[in-house]
Amino acid sequence: MIYRILAVVAFVAVIVGAVLLSGQQRETTTQTTAEEPTQDLGYAARKAELIETGPDGHPIYRLIADIIRQLPDRDIVDLEQVHLVFRDVNGNVWTARSERGQLGQDTGKVELTGDVHVAGVLPGTEQPADILTDRLGFDTNGQILSTQDPVILEWSGHRLHAQGLLASLKDHRLQLESAVHGIFTP
Fold it and tell me: What is the domain range of residue 153?
C-alpha cells in the first residue's frame, strides 16, 4: 500500500513540475517576442494614385503609377509608368509622364526618368509647350522643373534643343541652360 501512495505522490509531483516548467518557458518566449523590434516592411501597390493636397485642401498634384513601391529604409517611393498632373499658380494644368520615377517622402520632390514628356501652357504666353528629356526633377513646393540632361522644348510651332533647363512656373520664367539650338522665323 505504501508503494501505491508513493507512486501516486510521485506521479502528482511530475505533473505539477511539468506544469510549472512549461509555464516558465511560455513566459520566457513571450518576453523574447515582446522585446524584438518590429520591422516596417513598407508598401507596394498597382494602378495607384497619390494626391498631395495643400493647406487649403486643394490638390497640389496627382501622381498615378502602374506600380508604387515604398522601401522603409530609403525614404523614397519608387514608381513605374508614371503620370503626374499638377496646376501652376495661374491654374494652368500641366501633365508629365515617364517610364520611372521616385518621390522623396516629405520633400515634395519628384524625379522622373526615361522618356520624360511634360506638356502645359507657358505662363504669360498662353501657348502650349512640350518639354522632352530623359530625366527631369519637379519640386512641387516651389513649382520648379529642372534637368541638366539634353532637352527639347517645342513651343508655338518651334523646336529648341538645349543642354539643361530650369523652369520656375511661379515666377513665369523658363531658362535653357547651354548649347541652345533652334530657329525662330516670323
Answer: 43-182
